[in-house]
Amino acid sequence: MKTNIFTSAILVVAISFQGVFAQKPRVTVLATGGTIAGAGTQSTSSAYQAAQLPIDNLLNAVPEIHNIATLKGEQISQVGSQDMSIDIWLKLAKRIQELFDQNLTDAVVITHGTDTQEETAYFLNLVLKTAKPVILVGAMRSSTAISADGPRNLFNAVTVAVDTASMGKGVLVVMNDKIISARDVTKTHTTAVETFKGGGFGPVGCVEDGQVFFNYDITKKHTSATAFDIRKINALPKVEIVYGYADASPIAIQALMKNKVAGIIVAGVGNGNFNKALGEQIKLATKAGVSVVRASRVGSGRVSLNVEVNDTEFGTLVSEDLNPQKARILLMLGLSQNMSREDLQKLFFTY
Ligand code: GLU
Q1: What is the rounded distance in angstroms from the CA atom of residue 226 to the CA atom of residue 154?
Q2: Which ligand 1 atom is the nearest neighbour of the CA of 117?
Q3: Residues 139 and 260 both lie in one domain
Q4: Residue 232 lies in a domain
């Protein structure tokens, strides 16, 4: 008799497990706006307005995604991503964390404009505490254009989201059949569909015919392995970017100092260099306690500590190979934790 009850119990557990495994993965699609939700009046024209279509229209436009996932949509914002803001980042990241903490979803896909997609991706990569897949996706052509790329990109994004191989890889961007780490991804062309590249290191994988292929792993720390937890972050200090060029004047840095920024990223020339006029202002800024990080306007390669520029003399830090807009995010997060100069520099070598 005992054996019978035991056997039945095992059977019940096995059946319910089968039931669980038979279910499609739950994917929450968080919409923020952008071209993927854009619409125009002429299919042959590239004139359109970003951030028009609500999330349900996006989900219904690609029936195939309903075959591979149980989808839920939520509208977080409806902006062209040139208007992406820290407030929206905080709202988005907190919502994702809540969805995972309460086990309301197995993966998250975020639809996003492409202009600042890399910044949102890197922010989430640093503050989310999860191993579950978080995928950003967008489109270069609006929903009404000939050969709109949004539907395929969305299908690919959901395909990557439901693949268990995507677990623990940090936040990923899926665009034009490529899978690129949030750490490396950057927009490189103003209008082409093949615009997102993985910095100096390329994509980590690709999606082909509904199949996911990962070739590389990201070694930089992300998500659960970082010092930043979105559950404890409610604001970020002010950090601005100053661009370097021939005969740059000190006006921009002077204005930033007057406006009491906590940090400045210098998008320097070459190996993060600046001219004498900027150098003088930078010394004044670091002496006044403002954190100044040297990055480069070049687009690839590392900025070297104490090589061409004496960072000890200027009080500056280097961004490693983070581009200026991503260096800004890491500096804001580091400053939000009141880190020392040494610890801030370590962040740039680690994340
Ligand atoms: N500028 C808009 C944005 O970033 C449209 C560009 C796009 O999504 O590709 O949202």
Answers
A1: 28
A2: 4
A3: no
A4: no
Contact residues of ligand 1, CB 6 A cut-off: 34-35, 50, 80-82, 113-115, 138, 140
Distance 115 CA to ligand 1 centre (A): 5
Is it the case that residue 214 has pLDDT exceeding 70?
A: yes
Does a structural domain hold residue 13?
no
* 213 shares a domain with 71: yes
Residue positions annotated with a catalytic role: 35
To test ligand 1's pocket by mutation, which of 76, 81, 143, 188 has the most ligand atoms within 8 angstroms of CB?
Answer: 81
In the DSSP assignment, the letter for residue 338 is T
Task: Please give the pLDDT value at position 38.
Answer: 66
- Ligand 1, atom nearest to 35 Cα: 8
Q: Residue 47: give its domain's CATH number.
A: 3.40.50.1170
Ligand 1: atom nearest CA of 34 is 10
3 within domain boundaries: no
219 and 269: one domain? no
- In which domain, by residue range, is 343 found? 237-350
Mutate to test the pocket of ligand 1, among 82, 119, 190 (most ligand atoms within 8 A of CB): 82
- The percentage of residues in the chain with a pLDDT greater than 70, rounded to a whole number, is 90
Q: Which pLDDT value is given to residue 122?
A: 98
Asked if residue 192 and residue 313 are part of one domain, the reply reads no
Band (52; pLDDT cuts 50, 70, 90): confident
As a dihedral over the C-alpha atoms of residue 276, residue 280, residue 281, residue 284, rounded to 10 degrees, the angle is 160
Same structural domain, 92 and 132: yes
Q: Per the domain annotation, does 14 fall within a domain? A: no
Please check the confidence at residue 246 and state whether its pLDDT lies above 70: yes
- Which among 338, 293, 334 is positioned nearest to 317, based on CA atoms? 293
Distance in Å, CA 132 to ligand 1 centroid: 26
Looking at the structure, do residues 204 and 271 belong to the same domain, yes or no? no
Which of 115, 116, 186 is the best mutation target for the ligand 1 pocket, counting ligand atoms within 8 Å of the beta carbon and taking the most? 115
Could you give the number of structural domains in the chain?
2
- Which is nearest to 27 in space by CA: 168, 156, 117, 151? 156
- Band (334; pLDDT cuts 50, 70, 90): very high
**DSSP character at residue 164:** G
Query: 329: how many CB neighbours lie within 10 A of its CB?
Result: 25
Q: Are residues 217 and 260 in the same domain?
A: no
- pLDDT greater than 50 at residue 267: yes
Residue 198, pLDDT above cutoff 90: yes
Give Cβ neighbours of residue 343 (< 8 Å, ≥ 6 apart).
334
Q: Taking residues 57-85, what's their average pLDDT?
A: 95
